[in-house]
């Protein structure tokens, strides 16, 4: 890394402080939307049992196996999507090669099968 900082120090001192407000805002937004979903469901439910009401009553009485299965399956599906996306992105990134250039010559990026070049005024 630059200036003798390793990856952890760079994350802790630069990246985390920059993204912390976004993470906090996303957590508050997710909480307010979930809370709003429960409140609206509770007022308009009638005699039916919906998923937010089922989760709330399960939390009061004790969590049944069905809620654990649903939560775990949602987590693992989301985790699988993220892992597949990261693998595909890393494969795509490894195929792209930056060709070095000198000032005044066109900059070239080489992709398998075709070439793109343009003039860079730097």
UniProtKB/TrEMBL annotation:
Membrane topology, as annotated: Multi-pass membrane protein
Alphabetical list of Gene3D superfamilies matching this protein: MetI-like
Cellular location(s): Cell membrane
Domain of life: Eukaryota
Membrane-spanning parts: 14-35, 69-89
Main location: membrane
All copies of domain ABC transmembrane type-1, residue ranges: 1-88
PROSITE patterns: ABC_TM1
GO cellular component: plasma membrane
Family, similarity comment: Belongs to the binding-protein-dependent transport system permease family. CysTW subfamily.
Protein name: ABC transmembrane type-1 domain-containing protein
The organism of origin for this protein: Halteria grandinella
């Amino acid at each position: 890394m630059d200036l003798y900082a390793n990856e952890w120090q760079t994350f802790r001192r630069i990246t985390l402080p920059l993204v912390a407000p976004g993470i906090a805002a996303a957590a508050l937004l997710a909480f307010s939307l979930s809370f709003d979903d429960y409140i609206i469901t509770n007022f308009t439910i009638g005699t039916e049992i919906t998923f937010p009401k089922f989760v709330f009553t399960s939390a009061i009485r004790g969590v049944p196996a069905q809620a654990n299965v649903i939560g775990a399956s949602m987590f693992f599906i989301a985790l699988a999507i993220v892992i597949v996306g990261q693998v595909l992105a890393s494969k795509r990134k490894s195929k792209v090669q930056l060709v070095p250039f000198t000032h005044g010559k066109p900059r070239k990026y080489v992709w398998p099968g075709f070439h793109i070049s343009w003039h860079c005024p730097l």
